[in-house]
Amino acid sequence: MNLILASTSPYRRRLLERLRLPFTCMDPAIEESMREGESPSERASRLATEKVSATAQRLQGDAIVIGSDQVACLATQILHKPGTPEAAERQLAASSGQTVRFWTAVSVWTSPDQAPTQRVVPCEVKIRALSAPEITRYVALDQPLDCAGSFKWESLGITLFEAIRTDDPTALEGLPLIALGELLREAGISLPLAAQSAQHSL
Question: Given Cys at both, which of 23, 109, 120, 160 links 65, Cβ 3.0 to 4.6 Å?
Answer without folding.
Answer: 109
